[in-house]
Amino acid sequence: MERTQQVHEGRNIKRFREMLGMKQETLAYELGEDWTQKKISQLETKEKIERDILEQVAKILKVTPEAIQQFDADNALNIISNTFTSHDSSTLNAINHNCTFNPFDKLVEVYEENKKLYERLIQVEKEKVVYLEQLLKDK
């Protein structure tokens, strides 16, 4: 399948940066003292990024340069929407729409387990007190 439109590398840098919750200032700091927030803003408006800068940015964003060069948001959204709105049998196994347990029962189980752990903790503390009292009597 051949691409009909050019991927905007600067916009993709912005997308990956935002997915990581990283600010432009942080990316500028990571790139070095030559970089500022304004320079990152300008970089994100460029359709094509120089290879060496692309590699540095990709390393900081923990992606490959090819990911930035090839990421297509429309295709990604298309895949996501087809995966999560499809009701065919291939996706039903991946997404469990029908809960097979009662969440309240699970909550009660966790409560009971916590109760047992607390009781064991109290018992251990009582044994420790008895042991310490015995040590004091022996002295």
Structure description:
The protein is built from eight helices and no strands. It is mostly helical and 139 residues long. The longest helix has 36 residues, at 103-138. The chain is elongated and about 80 Å long.
Shape: elongated
Number of strands: 0
Counted by DSSP, the helix tally is 8
User: Which ranges are low-confidence, i.e. pLDDT below 50, for 5 or more consecutive residues?
Assistant: none
Helix and strand composition category: mainly alpha
Strand content: under 5%
Q: Percent range for helical residues? A: 55-70%
Compute the separation of the termini in Å: 86 Å
Q: What is the overall pLDDT average? A: 83
Please tell me how large the radius of gyration is.
Answer: 28 Å
State the order of secondary-structure elements, H for helix, E for strand. HHHHHHHH
Largest sheet: none
